[in-house]
Structure formats: C-alpha cells, structure tokens
Amino acid sequence: MRYRIWPDGAFPNFGEIVLMSTGTKGLQSAATQPSPWYLRYLLVIGFLVMLVSMMDRYVVSILMEQIKADLQLTDTQLGWLVGPAFVIVHVVFQLPLARLADFTNRRNMIAIAMSLWSLFTVAAGFAKSFPLLLLSRMGVGITEAGCSPPLASLLSDYFGAERRGRAMSIFTLGSVAGIGAGMLLGGIVGQAYGWRTALIVAGVPGVVLAVVFFLTVREPPRGLSDGVDPSDVSARPPLSTVLKTLFGKPSFVWLIIGASFLNVVALGRGVWEPVFLMRIYDLDQATAGITYFLISPVPAMLGAVLGGLLTDHLVKRDQRWCLWLPAVAMLALFPLTAGFLLWPVSSTIVGLGLPIGFLFSIVGSIVSGMASPATIATGQNLSPPAMRAMTHALWTMASNLVGMGLGPLMVGILSDHLATSLGEESIRYAMLIVTGLAILSAIAFYFGARRVREDLV
Does residue 51 have a pLDDT over 70? Predict the structure, then answer.
C-alpha cells in the first residue's frame, strides 16, 4: 500500500513524501521525510494564511472612527462590532469544524474557509447599516473558525515535538503581522478612499492565497512527525474521549485559563490602540496605522521568533519552561504597557523626537510576542495526534471567547463610562484597567507549569 502526498512529478521543488506500508507498526519510521525546502515553504504559506486571517479580522479596528462617524455609532457598539459579533459565532462553529478537521482533508478545509472569509470581508464594504455590517462580521467569524485548528494539526504532522515551538511561532508571527497589515492597509486606503474601499481591498488577497494554498500544499499522514502508524490515528475518537483525555490534564485547564486572560489583555490593547493613538497622540488615521505597525506588530513578531527559539531550547532543560516562559512574559507586560499608556505625550527622547511612551510599547510588544508560541506548542504537545485539531480548537475557543469577546468590549464600555469625567482621556485608563489582567494570566501559567511534566504525552 503506497501513500503519496502528491502525484509523481508534481511540485518537484517542494519535495515528496512516499510511505511504504509493510502492514506492521512503525510505518512512519520507514517514510521518506519531506524536503527541508518544502518544510520552509509550509512555514511561509502558513504564515501568510494567518496574516490574511488576522488582516481581515482586525482591519475594522483602524476604521472604527470613520465607521463611527458614518453610521453614528457609540464606542460600545464599536466594541460589539470588533468583539462579540465575531467571536460568539467563531467559537460556536470552531468545535464542529475542528472535529471535522481531525478526520478529513485539512488542506481543503483551510482553502475553502480562506476564500469564504475573504468574500465576507469584501461584503462588509458594501454594508449600509450597523446590522448589515454586524452580519458580515459574523460571516467572517464563522468561516475563520475553519482555519487555525486544521492548520495547527497539519503543521504538527510535519514538525516533531523538538521543532514544534518554532513551527507554532508562525501563528503568532502571522497573527501580529496580519493585525499590523490590517492597520497599515486600512489606515492608508481608508484615509484616501474611505472605509468601504479599505474593506474591499483587504478581502481580495485571501481569495488568491486560497487558490495557491490548495494547489501547493498536500495533506500529510496523521502522526507523521511522531513516527506513528497512520492506521493508529485514522479512527475518529469519540468526543467524550477527547474531552476526558484533555480536561483530565490539569496543565491543559490552566493553559486555557492563562491564554484566556492573555487574549483579553492582547486584544483589549490591540484593537483599540489605533484609536488611542488618534485620540491621545492626535495622529491622523494613516499615521496612526503606520505608527501602530512599527511600535506593536513589528516588535511582537521579533518576540514571537525569540519565543519560539527559547521555548525549544529551554524545554530541553526542563519541560516546565513551556509555561514558565509565558508566565514571566505576562508579569513583565503589565508595567511596560502601563508606561506606554500613561507616559506624557510631550515627553520625547532628546534629539530623536520619539515619544518615550513608544519605547515602552516596543519593549512590551516584544515581551508579549514571546508568550504565544509556547502556549500553542504546549497545547499540541499535550495532545495525541488524532486529537490535535480538536485540542487547538478547545483551548483557542475558550481563549477567544473570553479574550476577543470581552477584551475589546470591556475597553469600549469602560471608555464610555469614564468619558463623562475624563473626556477623550478615558481610552487611556480603560485600556490600563484591562491590561491589569496580565497578572492573572501569569498566575494561571505558573500553576499549569507545576503539572505539565506529568501531563505531556
């Protein structure tokens, strides 16, 4: 019995995996491994998938002031638009789609989902009212639920545990790059041509990338990187078994709690930071988008690379570092973000004219980016190969529901509440209050680290 990842002669530069079955255990050990060039290509295209996903998800953030003026909305309504409208349906659909990904072709799922969420983003540009815009954002939320769980599962079958931290860093790299690209594109195009055109332009690249992904990426046998016989992971485990296996591990529960608070902090800041720059630093929309990109996503990408490398290095010494590292990062994040939010606007570096607050943002973003690769890799390492899409879905469902559902909305509600006494300064203190939850995230990761060695499969 022969398994071919793609037909003979197709895509020769990317490498080929040929599995020769002998009918015995240990099938994967006899496999010809994918070429290094193909593995690099997988990381690049995986990065681009996450970039497009996050760009379409967050491009609305830089356009909020325009949308608010055009549709006559409040900050609370904007909070619903960038938070619960997306995340509630995203979470509802993520579990069944992840369940599907654990026994069907993940490549196809990702390509179809990418084309659909891109079209919903384009449709948002034609919305004439708040309810229609809300519905289009819900469409993006539903279809993006078919992205990260199958992608995490697919990559885990190509990259073994010793390289999984670096491989999973593409989720953080792609996410922060996508948020930055959305802010950059939305800021420049939105200021020149309006928020509707910006949404339409943001949706087009995903359709093209979906075709490229479908044509060049091939589905690996499950458990390939772990040396597992495909027949051992081809059967779909019952949902009750998946839940019992994962939630029977205390470190997995603490991982979910820590990641949830991490997302509240990250998204509460990330979604509203362009608005903060416009209101507090008096930047126009395009300048705010460029500034945000340089002081937040760019350094966060550097942090993600460092975090992935550090995770793979430190866990060789002690497996508890997979959660110790996020704990340390979140402890350091709060004072750094507080410095960014509270430092006087007029205080600059002599000779450079760079606001000192921006330095706090740069360092804080590096630290924040270091936390995510370790959490994603830990989730995959805690899971058997046949459950990896479901594992990724379960912990990201909870963290997204709490993080994206509450983070942006909490900032919006707090900003409206504080505006009566603080005016436009209210956004500064609303973001600061939400950032304080980073301490709870650090505590959860610490308790998870205490049990992770005995829980790892």
Answer: yes
Alpha helices in 296-355 (DSSP H): 297-314, 321-342
Domain range enclosing 28: 1-33
Q: Are residues 195 and 153 in the same domain?
A: yes
Total domains, the chain: 2
By C-alpha distance, which of 341, 405, 419, 436 is closest to 75?
A: 419
Rounded distance between C-alpha atoms, residue 297 and residue 294, angstroms = 7
Cα 414 to Cα 270: distance, rounded to the nearest angstrom: 16
The alpha carbon of residue 406 and the mean position of all alpha carbons in its chain are separated, in whole angstroms, by 16
Q: Is the pLDDT of residue 172 over 80?
A: no
Residues 388/59, Cβ–Cβ less than 8 Å: no
> 23 and 125: one domain?
no
Residues 15 and 60 in one domain: no
Q: Is there a single domain that holds both residue 215 and residue 77? A: yes
| Interatomic CA distance for residues 238 and 413, integer angstroms | 41
Residue 221, pLDDT > 90, answer: no
Residue 364 CA to residue 339 CA, distance in Å, equals 9
Please give the model's pTM, rounded to 2 decimal places. Answer: 0.68
pLDDT mean across residues, the chain: 81
Torsion angle of the four alpha carbons 329, 335, 338, 344, in this order, in degrees rounded to the nearest 10:
-130
φ, ψ of residue 85 in degrees (nearest 5): -55, -35
CATH number, residue 362 = 1.20.1250.20
Quick check: 146 and 22 in contact, CB under 8 A? no
Nearest alpha-carbon partner for 245 in 382, 101, 381, 379 = 382
Dihedral angle over CA of 307, 311, 314, 317, nearest 10: 180
Instruction: Give the pLDDT confidence score for residue 23 in this predicted structure.
Output: 34
pLDDT of residue 3: 35
Residues 260 and 389 in one domain: yes
Note the pLDDT of residue 140: 92
Contacts of 85 (CB under 8 A, 6+ apart): 134, 137, 138, 141
Domain shared by 53 and 26, yes or no: no
Q: Specify whether 348 is located in the same domain as 327.
A: yes
The residue among 374 and 107 whose pLDDT is bigger is 107
The position carrying tokens 């490549």 is 107
Cβ atoms of 259 and 401 within 8 Å: the answer is: no
- Give CA angle at 95 (94, 97), nearest 5°: 65
Q: How far is CA 138 from CA 112, 116, 148, 208, 302, in A?
A: 17, 12, 17, 22, 31
43 and 26 together in one domain: no
